[in-house]
Each structure stands twice: as C-alpha cells, then as structure tokens.
Amino acid sequence: MVVPPIIHCDISSNNVLLDSQYEAHVSDFWTVKILKPGSHTWTEFAGTFGYAAPELAQTMEVTEKCDVFSFGVLSLEVIMGKHPGNFISSLLSSPSAKIAYNWPLIDVLDERPPQPPKKSIVGDAILVASLAVSCLSETPSSRPTMEVSKMLMTGKSPLADQFPMIRLGQLLYH
Amino acid sequence: MERELWGSVFIYWVLLARPLWLVSANMEGDALHSLRTNLQDPNNVLQSWDPTLVNPCTWFHVTCNNDNSVIRVDLGNAVLSGQLVPQLGQLKNLQYLELYSNNISGPIPNDLGNLTNLVSLDLYLNRFSGPIPESLGKLSKLRFLRLNNNSLTGPIPMPLTNITALQVLDLSNNQLSGVVPDNGSFSLFTPISFNNNLDLCGPVTGHPCPGSPPFSPPPPFVPPSPISAPEGNSATGAIAGGVAAGAALLFAAPAIVFAWWRRRKPQEFFFDVPAEEDPEVHLGQLKRFSLRELQVATDTFSNKNILGRGGFGKVYKGRLTDGSLVAVKRLKEERTPGGELQFQTEVEMISMAVHRNLLRLRGFCMTPTERLLVYPYMANGSVASCLRERPAHQQPLDWPTRKRIALGSARGLSYLHDHCDPKIIHRDVKAANILLDEEFEAVVGDFGLAKLMDYKDTHVTTAVRGTIGHIAPEYLSTGKSSEKTDVFGYGIMLLELITGQRAFDLARLANDDDVMLLDWVKGLLKEKKLEMLVDPDLHSNYIDAEVEQLIQVALLCSQGSPMDRPKMSEVVRMLEGDGLAERWDEWQKVEVLRQEVELAPHPNSDWIVDSTENLHAVELSGPR
C-alpha cells in the first residue's frame, strides 16, 4: 500500500522533540487537518513565523518544498545556536545585497561547544551548512528534495581542510 | 405651434444651464488660482495649477467629487508662505482644507465660515495671526479643528461651541486670552487643547477668570495653569528656558497628579459593588469605562451584536448611555499578560495616534479578568465587507471612492510609521482592517494591538498573526516585521481593492495559469488586459490610466525584497501624483536585469533530483 505524501507545514525547533538518546522525532501531527483539493478552508496562516517559505506570501500551493525550506531554517539554527533570521533576511534581499554569502562559516557556527573542533566535526558542520544554505533558496525548484538531503548528510566534505577560509556562498557549489 | 414653442423653451433652458455649470467650475479654479498668486511657492508645488483649464480637478493636491467640485486641498508640508485669500470661501463642497506645516501668515479669512461642508480645517504649524473668526461657528460638519502652533490672538469665539460634530480641537501654542468655554462641544475637551497660550482662564485651565467667583475645588487630575508668556523685553534665552521648563512640568504634572489620585482610590472589585458607578476618568481624550457600562451597551456581549472576530478577540456593536454607537473589542483573556499599569500605558500610547485616517480609540476598560477597548462605530463597515459581503440594497464602491480609500489608508499608515513616537507597525494590513466611516473615508483599524497583546518582537512565535496572502515573505521566513511588512500588506490590499477579490482567490487564479500571483498581475498589466483584473461590479466605469497607476503602486509595494519597496510616505506622494512614473520606469529596468539573471542556469541544478514533482501531495496544517 502506497502512503500518499504528507506535508507537515509547521517544521520548527519547537516541533522536533528529542528522546533520551538525543534522537530527533518530528512531532505535532496530531493537530493536522487534511484539506480537500480545491477547498477554500485554509485562509489563516498556520505555520510558524520565522520558518515558513517566502513563496507562501503569494501562492496557495503548498508543496513539499515548503517543508524543505523550514528544514533549512531548522538545520542552520542547530549549528548556529540561535534563529538565523539575519542570514535569511540577507538571502531574500536583492542579488547585489546577499552579503551573507561572504560570511565566514567559522563566524556563523555556535561558539559555545569546546574549541577547537575536530576535523570530523568540521566536516559534518560543513555538510549541514551546505545543505541548509541550499534548502533556503528563494526559488522552490532550486531547493533539494528531502531524499537528496538525506544522501548528502551521509557523505564527506572535501572542503574540511579549508575550514577557516570557507564562506557560506561557496557551499552553494558543493 | 404650441409644441414648437415648448421645444424652443427647452432648448433655451439647456443653453442657459450649461454656461452656469461652466461658470461654477471656473469659479472654483479662479478661487484657487487667487490663492496661488497670493502665496510664495519656492518648491513649485502649485506649478500644475493652470487657470486656463476647464476646472481645477486635474491639479496636483486638489481632489474633486464626481461633479468636478473641489472637496480636498492638501498642501501640508509644502514650504508655502504668504497669506490666504477670502475667495477660498467659494469652495462650497470643500471638506478638507489641509494647509498645516507651512509659513503662511496673516489673518484667517472670515469667509472660511462659508465652507459649510468642511470636515477638517488644519492650519497648525504656520504663522497665522489675528483673531479666530467667529464665522467658523457656522461649520456644522466640522470634526477636526487644529489651529495650534500659530500666533493667534484674542478670545476663543463662543460660536465654536455650537459645532456638535467637533471631535478634535487643538488651539494650543498661540497667544489667545479670555474665557475657555466649557459648554456645548467644548465640554469634551481637556487642557491639552488649550495649553501654552497667553492668558486663557476658566475651569478647564485651572485658572480662575478675574471678576468671577472661585469655582468648586478642581478635579484631582487637572494640571496647574499654563505658563504665561513673559512680558516685552525678556531675554530670548530666558524665554526658551522658561518654555522648556514649563513644557516639562506640563507633561509631568498630569501623570503625577493621576498617580496620586490612583493611589488614593480604593482597590476596584467589580462584583462586590455592582451598583456603584465608576467616576469618569479621562486620560487626555481617553475615557475609562466601567465593565457594567459596556455590558449594558452590548447587551452583555450578546452574540447578536458581534461585528467580527479577529486574532485579538471579538468585536461587538454597542450603544452607550449617551446614545452614541461604539465598537467594543474584547481582548482574548489568555492573551493579556502583564499588569494594569502596563496595559494602561500601552492603551495611552495607542490613543496618541490621532489622524483622520486612523481609528480613534475612545476608551478602555480594565478589570482583573477583562480587557476591553472602545472605538467609534464605523457605519460602513470595512473595505472587505463592502467588496464581498455587500447587502443587495447597497451600491458597490465606485472607482473614485476606491481611489480615495487607497489614498486615505496610505496616509493613515504613513502617519503610524513616520509621526508616531515610537513608530507603530501595524502588522496586519488587509481589507478587513481598513474601515469606512459614514462618508466612506478610509480609517485604518487594529493598529498597535500586537504590542498590546505582549508579543515580543525579538522572539519567533507560533501565534497566528496575519492572514495568508497578506504576510510579507520576509516576515514568514524570519519572523521579523518592520514598516516594510506593512507596505507589502498594503500592496496586496490595493489589489483586492481593484479586483474586489480576496488575495487567496487571486492567488488561485494565478495558480491556474501556473504562475505566482504578482507575476500574473505583471503579465496582465503588460498586455493591457485590465478588464481581467478590474472588479466587474465597476461595470467598466473607471479610467484605464488610473487603474494602471494603482496597479503599478500595488506591484511596487509587494516586491519580494523589503528594501526595494517604497516607504508609505513615498506611496502617499505617488498617489497624490508625484514620482510614480519615475519609480516605475526604474523598477522596470531592474526587472529586466533580474529576469536575465534568472534565465541563467542555476548552479544547483546538476545534483538536485526532484522526484516528487508530479505527485499529488496531501496538505496538512494546523496551529501548534
């Protein structure tokens, strides 16, 4: 039996719960409503400000790419240690003003874990950041699918040796 | 023979009537032209005032009704100097005379008393001298009279008390003297309206008039008398210092007196003393209502009196004991943290936003379990209800009215952003929050409530705020609002005003063509297919060029990048006919470049495999 695709629509750090082994579990399915195709019942925004895809400002078509965007915000929040609102603001600015692409990755990472990080951790951080930046693309079709994201997370990054010099914009071309 | 004679009479009558109509239109143009010749205009604001045109309705800063008669003159902040002319009294249908914040001097002409349709007379922040004309008492429809910050002398004319419609009066910062009336419409006004004059007296000033017996002890919240100006040859520095100190004292004194009075007042327990009438307390123009009074007004918040439901609570229609109609907003109980003092401080902040295009807060009610706000009742509901829930007997909004709504709502939002201190971001700009008074003037409602509900700006929240289709993209993705999120909401509201449809339904139409909403609108504008956008209820009774301009403003306001959107003050100027063409051309060039960039191959395209493109997704959603 094929289960139809489900779009969560409210991925945020509040809705990802952690068990005793720090395994992540997506929650908040029990409040969902199934909308019939073509219905006009959904006129209130029901996601979380700060995690919703920008194209929802002018389209009623909710796709899985909305969840991918929210996942990108969540991923960046995990490695930054705070909500990445400023970074997203910069991404959504005019092309000439995407100053966040020049930010060094080392400045973006949460500074609270003990320093200096091991090379393997650096590699993982680069993978997460690379994935997050791609998920936050303004154009929905430019975002990866969750399947692609899953595969990327198990790979290795050849950029680890250049960690101090890496800027976020470079990660788009990984 | 008789039939022939009757026909001749008819033809003669028509010929006679037409010249009269032309003469009437020219008379108003001539009157305004007299004003132009009497003013110095260094910024060429009046350059378009061409007396050779058939009427003044195409002049900038002049607004006419459907009969080509002048109803508005908007010349605030225009760097004009010189004097007014009595011919202004010939503008019989004038409703708004806005000349504030200029350098106009000389007397206020007596002939302004002939403007019997005048709603707003704003001459504040000028250099007018001489007396306030007694003839202004004939302006029976006047609601806003602001003559503050001039050099007016003499007494306050007693006939002003006859203007029953008067809601806002400001005569402060002049050189007036004599008795301040406290009867008629003046019974509503407080010392704020009369501060900082030469020698005013009377109960409202706290200063007894010479020769009259001392009145009963003043109410505790009345401030001390205003500072009288020093005589003749006092040093300028001393005057400035005295004025500054006096102003500081005047601002502080009411708060001090009120705090003292509140401390003396017993703790209020509504249920213990059901029959007791709360004393009337006025904070500035704001009244504190008792819960019982509002329960009586709304028939104990009866469901049949519900005007609407919003994110902040339900709104009820009510009638106060003085007969006036109000809208009572009952804030949701679980959303009102914080103490009484905090709520009251924020209510006072909202009540300071006074503008003809903003919904005026009349009062509030606080109990341990209730927080209510009292607003004037808006006879014509909201733009949303007029467009989509119109009863059969009510005419649809015509095009000139829609244009006026666009301009009025822009002015209200611009005031919130640029003149309120601290600035107020509305956060929920949409057709349902643009109310319409009995004259279909736009009145922006529901502003300032986000702060009142204690939503923290700096924290991402799961609360539902805003309506799908009206939320700016950066607000969705970052959780941060600014005045530019209001501009986005305004742009979408303009599209609703033009099309008559909800943003939600517009987005569905666009989706049928497989494009985003704003790209869809852009395409129709480019192809000149206005009829596909304009509300069918207008029955083609609109001017193509004006529709195009309004759509251009809407598109400029709803750009994806906040930095690219105009400010609301710039929107006001564009709607008044200044600067839209240049802004639009500039944007067109940028758009061409943007499209070229978007056509380039995307660097991510190689490794992205979108395997779910054609699958039908079940949409799930729900508040947290």
Q: How would you describe what is shown here?
A:
The complex is a heterodimer of chains A (174) and B (624). By secondary structure, chain A is mainly alpha-helical. Chain A has a single domain, classed as Transferase(Phosphotransferase) domain 1 (Transferase(Phosphotransferase), domain 1, Orthogonal Bundle), CATH 1.10.510.10. Helix content of chain A is 30%, strand content 6%. Chain A contains five helices and four strands. Chain A has helices spanning 64-80, 85-91, 105-108, 119-135, 146-153; strands spanning 6-7, 16-18, 24-26, 33-34. A two-stranded antiparallel ribbon of chain A has the order 2-3. Chain B folds into three domains: 25-203, Ribonuclease Inhibitor (Leucine-rich repeat, LRR (right-handed beta-alpha superhelix), Alpha-Beta Horseshoe); 284-376, Phosphorylase Kinase, domain 1 (2-Layer Sandwich); 378-592, Orthogonal Bundle (Transferase(Phosphotransferase), domain 1), CATH 1.10.510.10. In chain B, the strands form four sheets. A seven-stranded mixed β-sheet of chain B has the order 1-4-6-8-10-12-13. In chain B, helix 6 (399-418) runs antiparallel to helix 13 (568-575), helix 10 (503-512) packs across helix 11 (517-526) and helix 12 packs across helix 14. The termini of chain B are far apart. At the A-B interface, strand 1, strand 4, helix 1 and helix 2 of A face helix 8, helix 10, helix 14 and strand 23 of B.
Question: Could you provide a short overview of the structure?
Answer:
The complex is a heterodimer of chains A (174) and B (624). By secondary structure, chain A is mainly alpha-helical.
Q: What is the topology?
A:
The complex is a heterodimer of chains A (174) and B (624).
Chain A: E1 6-7, E2 16-18, E3 24-26, E4 33-34, H1 64-80, H2 85-91, H3 105-108, H4 119-135, H5 146-153
Antiparallel strand pairs in A: 2-3
Helix pairs in contact in A: 1-4
Chain B: H1 2-38, E1 39-40, E2 62-64, E3 70-74, E4 81-83, E5 96-98, E6 103-106, E7 120-122, E8 127-130, E9 144-146, E10 151-154, E11 168-170, E12 175-179, E13 199-201, H2 236-264, E14 281-283, E15 286-288, H3 291-297, E16 306-310, E17 313-319, E18 325-331, H4 340-351, E19 363-366, E20 371-376, H5 383-388, H6 399-418, E21 434-436, E22 442-444, H7 449-452, H8 473-478, H9 483-499, H10 503-512, H11 517-526, H12 544-557, H13 568-575, H14 580-599, E23 618-621
Parallel strand pairs in B: 3-5, 4-6, 5-7, 6-8, 7-9, 8-10, 9-11, 10-12, 12-13, 15-19
Antiparallel strand pairs in B: 1-4, 2-3, 14-15, 16-17, 17-18, 18-20, 19-20, 21-22
GO molecular function (chain B): ATP binding; protein serine/threonine kinase activity
Pfam families (chain B): LRR_1, LRRNT_2, PK_Tyr_Ser-Thr
Signal peptide (chain B): 1-25
